[in-house]
Design a protein that fits this description.
The complex is a heterotrimer of chains A (about 80), B (about 750) and C (about 160). Chain A is about 20% helix and about 25% strand. With about 80 residues, chain A is of the alpha+beta class. In chain A, β3 and β4 (about 55) form a beta hairpin. The longest helix of chain A has 11 residues, at about 25-35. Chain A is globular. Chain A starts with a strand and ends in a 5-residue tail after the last strand. A 7-stranded mixed β-sheet of chain B has the order 3-5-1-12-9-10-11. Chain B has a 5-stranded mixed β-sheet with strand order 7-15-14-13-8, with helices on both faces. A 4-stranded mixed β-sheet of chain B has the order 16-24-25-26, with helices on both faces. In chain B, β13 (about 295-305) and β14 form a beta hairpin. The longest helix of chain B is centred in the C-terminal third of the chain and has 28 residues, at about 515-545. Chain C folds into 2 domains: about 5-80, Ubiquitin-like (UB roll); about 90-155, DNA polymerase, domain 1. In chain C, strands 2-1-5-3-4 form a 5-stranded mixed β-sheet, with helices on both faces. In chain C, β1 and β2 form a beta hairpin. The radius of gyration of chain C is 16 Å and the shape is globular. The chains are: A alpha+beta (about 80), B alpha+beta (about 750), C alpha+beta (about 160). At the B-C interface, α1 and α17 of B face α1, α2, α3, α4 and α5 of C.
Chain lengths: ~80, ~750, ~160
């Protein structure tokens, strides 16, 4: 199980939980796990988010999540 | 020769002439409006004069009857059933039931000349029922504000909010209230920034062609030909691969040319005109009224600080309108606002709000300048109150590698401390100031971006190399990519030609945005070159009859890796290339990826201003930009990015801003009234390139394009307070506002 | 509207074109003569991207009618280099990286050439005020000013 840190306004979809434990060894599996556990997150996650594994944004849904990694969700980043 | 602790470089860090320089100083370079085609028609767009109006009826009969008119399109000519972002793009391309802002396109015409097209556009009769409108972000959230679009809110918006609030976002960590309780000083202020336009000098222009078979072509000034392709294909209802989009040279973008505006209209008109190509060139007022400015913002910030300058907590609520569609960069603004500081506790929330204004587009570090204006202004005021040197405060609270960012995760390799040290050491900080003069300091941050990238490289028969990239060259990226490719291959810079290619030539590339061209296309070009090197080593090994692993690539030639590999003279790239046709065929390299390892960039700016107490006019006396580039591949163009970003930030701070009348019409849609900085407004802009190499890039590159626009807004506000005692909290800080603030400060 | 026959000289060459009386000189240069080096950034004389020399005078070609060129001499960016030899301003712009997107560059080069012909030894302030009618959004002007000053020095025969 991996602890995924959510941003605070997502807690209305997770019964108030800020950190959600989900199974998965890739960024994509964590997102699927989140949606399975809390379907209300679906539209927000599908709208585009960044999965940050330790200090780097995962470039792919297949990016592996190492054991003990710190995982944060962030809004999808874009630039000018 | 550039150098770091590990390596020396032959070319990286030098300043050769840019490959496209000759074309661009002789007028030969072809931009969006410079292309013509046989049988070409000219397009013109009919735009709403109302900020908000129901479109009762569009009568195109008079326009169609005009001699020379070949096509007229309205929303009825575009496919239905689009959803999400595609619907937004289509609705912005041509209004459906309602015009949502002054300048919103409602119809378009194509004719045999530009003058006939313009005349036909005037003959299109539109019956409007004018509706109540709102253009200010705070007013748009008020209970009595007119609703711009029912049901536009996404599921993040809590119940009970005004329907104009379409997205809500919050993050926090730590105990903010406890942090404020520990502080010796807690201050709270509200700031406002006005929408500004990217202000690229080249108006949007395209030449589009679409046949009844669904196949089309487009020549267009854009930051990203694949984005244009996908968006146009969706809006006019064709398959993406059937549209070939060729990017012209681009006359500036700054984020504003990452999306579509009138481009699909050229295709829709062409299709209706029997496939004749249609050229559309926007006027400046169309650019200002109807293409993406950035958002306007209203921001509350509260910060706690100890007497020694330690920040204990920060709280921010940002409201932004990005026009009549979702997409104001409120999330990015909040992420960046506290990024340069170790924050024991933060609480941030943001609202994306609709208003009757044009759909905002990305603008250089989208959101970051607004957030910095609020937070860096308040921090400066607090330093002043506590008698702390603002450089000391920045150093004391600066984030370092491994520190938790205000927005959550930990930072990897970053160079903020190095930037602050270089700033402090700069001679500009010890220049004495005179009467009515003041110095302001501020930091800024941008993430930078990797994004979808596809690059192809091929060795020519003479041992030179061509690189095909999908990121249009806006500020010298052909030069930086050529330098990195030549460095990797071990050949002269002049032996590499970098071509920006059309959509048919490569896989999908994201635009030149997010400061990614030199980072991502550069990284991919290096990978592609290494792929080719491997193949060249293999060919040499076959020639010598030794194992490929026993061959290494040194200075543009294959050579045996050691004494045991055998004794052979080096085989140069030209020798290998000269016979590649008979040794296995073309030698090339490709790389496709979404590169990880993006390196963030921090900057710190120092500005000296003189304020005229009679007029409130602010003169920039000197300006310093210090920023971490990771590594400057071509330092001149890195300096150019720093200087250009600073100049745009100075314009945003002092002059630029959208002015809407009571009627909701934009009152300053020309450069005379939307005043960007001119040469006589500015001094030389001093730069210091700090190099803390990004471990995620083969040459250490971080993006350099965006961070530089962020610090000027607060740095100038801070300098004005230092000069006058007056604190400005609203942009632009034009003479009337500065004068009023000085009077208010004197009145006490 | 019926068109008017215009005979003029562009970069020393005699040319003829038919102009609608509403068309600007910029339109005629670009669309009638195929000289697209002069750019339209605003159409209101505020950005200077369309700068040309008309009978020795620096003008915004978007503020001149095409028919006004009758019997006059027009100099554009396309005439600035002499064959293979770039004008020192053009060389210095490349050398100093005084362009990024390059869209304002033709107009700035034409305007700077006009400056150096009237004032071969301008101060930085004089260069800045002369070029205040030429907008550049990319560079912050720093490298442009340096390139112009350096070209002026070279034209005066001084080592830069």
């Amino acid at each position: 199980m991996v602890a995924v840190h959510l941003w605070s306004s997502l807690t209305r979809f997770t019964d108030g939980k800020r950190v959600v434990e989900v199974p998965g060894v890739t960024a994509g599996e964590l997102l699927s796990g989140l949606k399975a556990a809390y379907p209300g997150l679906g539209p927000v996650l599908d709208g585009g988010v960044s999965v940050v594994i330790d200090d780097a944004i995962a470039p792919s849904l297949h990016t592996p999540v190492p054991d003990g990694a710190e995982v944060y969700l962030m809004q999808r980043l874009k630039g000018g | 020769m550039a150098k770091d602790e590990y390596r020396e470089f032959r070319l990286v860090g030098t300043r050769p002439d840019r490959p496209d320089g000759l074309d661009k100083v002789t007028g030969r370079a072809r931009y969006g409006a410079d292309m013509t085609a046989p049988g070409m028609l000219w397009g013109a767009v009919v735009r709403s004069p109302h900020a908000h109006a129901r479109i009762v009826k569009i009568d195109t009969s008079k326009a169609e009857a005009l001699e020379g008119v070949k096509a007229v399109v309205t929303r009825a000519d575009l496919p239905t059933g689009l959803t999400g972002e595609d619907w937004d793009l289509q609705e912005n391309t041509l209004a459906g039931e309602r015009a949502l802002y002054d300048g919103h396109a409602v119809a378009a015409v194509a004719a045999t000349s530009a003058l006939i097209a313009q005349e036909a556009a005037r003959l299109v009769e539109v019956d409007y029922e004018v509706l109540p409108h709102v253009t200010d972000v705070d007013a748009a959230m008020a209970p009595d504000a007119p609703v711009i679009r029912e049901g536009a809110a996404d599921p993040t918006v809590p119940e009970g909010m005004h329907p104009n609030v379409v997205k809500y976002f919050a993050f926090d960590h730590g105990d903010v209230e406890a942090g404020f309780a520990q502080a010796d000083l807690v201050m709270e202020r509200t700031y406002k920034t006005e929408a500004t336009h990217q202000g690229y000098i080249e108006p949007h222009a395209c030449l589009g062609q679409l046949g009844s078979d669904g196949k089309g072509e487009m020549w267009v000034c854009t930051q990203g030909q694949w984005f244009i392709r996908r968006m146009c294909a969706a809006v006019v209802g064709i398959e993406a691969a059937q549209l070939r989009v060729t990017p012209s040279e681009i006359g500036g973008g700054f984020g504003g040319k990452t999306t579509i505006f009138m481009e699909p209209l050229s295709l829709a008109l062409s299709r209706k005109a029997g496939g004749r190509p249609v050229k559309i060139v926007m006027s400046r007022s169309e650019v200002l009224r109807a293409t993406g400015p950035t958002a306007s913002a209203s921001m509350d910030v509260k910060i706690g600080m100890k007497k020694d300058g330690t920040i204990t907590a920060g709280k921010a609520t940002f409201r932004m309108q990005g026009g009549a569609f979702p997409g104001a960069p409120v999330d990015m603004a909040l992420y960046c606002a506290f990024a340069p500081y170790k924050m024991p506790a933060v609480e941030c929330e943001g609202f994306d709000v609709l208003a009757n204004r044009p759909k905002c587009a990305a603008y250089r570090a989208p959101g970051s300048p607004m957030g910095a204006f609020a937070v860096e202004s308040l921090l400066d005021e607090m330093c002043r109150k506590l008698g702390i040197d603002p450089m000391d405060m920045r150093m004391k609270n600066a984030v370092r590698e491994g520190d938790r960012a205000a927005y959550g995760p930990k930072f990897g390799s970053i160079g903020l401390v190095e930037v602050l040290e270089a700033t402090r050491a700069h001679p500009n900080l010890s220049i004495p100031l005179g009467l009515n003069q003041g110095r302001g300091i501020a930091s800024g941050y941008w993430f930078n971006h990797g994004g979808e990238t596809s690059v192809s490289m091929a060795i020519s028969e003479d041992g030179t190399a061509q690189v095909s990239v999908g990121t249009p060259d806006i500020g010298g990226s052909r030069a930086s990519i050529a330098l990195m490719t030549a460095e990797t291959l071990g050949i002269p810079y002049e032996d590499v030609r970098v071509n920006v290619v059309e959509t048919g030539a490569l896989g999908v590339n994201e635009p030149t945005h997010g400061s990614r061209a030199t980072f991502a296309s550069g990284k991919a070009a290096v990978e592609a070159a290494q792929h080719a090197i491997k193949e060249m080593c293999r060919r040499a090994a076959a020639e010598w009859g030794i194992e490929p692993e026993a061959v290494e690539w040194v200075d543009g030639a294959a050579q045996p890796a050691g004494p045991n590999a055998g004794k052979f003279p080096p085989m140069t790239i030209a020798e290998i290339a000269g016979k590649m046709g008979s040794t296995g065929g073309p030698i090339s390299g490709h790389h496709e990826s979404v590169p990880g390892g993006v390196g963030e960039s921090f900057g710190c700016h120092v500005v000296d201003v003189e304020v005229d107490p009679e007029t409130g006019g602010v003169k920039i006396l000197r300006y310093l930009v210090v920023q971490d580039a990771g590594r400057a591949i071509h330092p001149s163009y890195v300096e150019g990015q720093y200087q250009g970003g600073a100049a745009q930030g100075i314009g945003w701070a002092l002059n630029e801003g959208y002015i809407y009348g009571e009627d909701g019409r934009l009152q300053n849609p020309v450069f005379l009234d939307y005043r960007v900085p001119v040469a006589s407004d500015l001094p030389m802009i001093d730069t210091v390139i700090v190099e803390v190499p990004n471990p995620g890039h083969p040459y250490g590159v971080r993006g350099v394009g965006e961070t530089g626009i962020t610090p000027p807004l607060p740095a100038i506000a801070n300098a004005i307070q230092a000069a006058t005692g007056a604190r400005l909290t609203e942009l632009p800080m034009n003479p009337p506002r500065v004068l009023a603030a000085i009077k208010a400060a004197k009145a006490g | 509207m019926s068109k008017i026959h215009v005979t003029t000289k562009v970069n020393g060459d005699p040319v003829e074109f038919l102009a609608d009386p509403r068309e600007t000189l910029l339109d005629c240069l670009r669309d009638r003569l195929g000289l697209t080096g002069s750019k339209e950034g605003c159409g209101t004389g505020d950005c200077g991207a369309c700068s040309v020399i008309l009978d020795g005078r620096l003008v915004c070609s978007c503020l001149v009618l095409g028919v006004e060129a009758q019997g006059k001499a027009v100099e554009t960016i396309e005439g600035m280099a002499q064959g293979e030899d770039l004008h020192p301003l053009q060389r210095k712009f490349i050398e100093h990286a005084a362009l990024q997107c390059g869209f304002c560059t033709p107009g700035i080069l034409v305007a700077a050439k006009a400056l150096l012909e009237t004032n071969p030894d301008p101060t930085e302030t004089e260069v800045r005020y002369w070029l205040a009618g030429n907008l550049c959004r990319c560079t912050g002007y720093d490298k442009i000013i340096r390139a112009v000053m350096d070209a002026a020095a070279e034209l005066r025969g001084e080592a830069a």
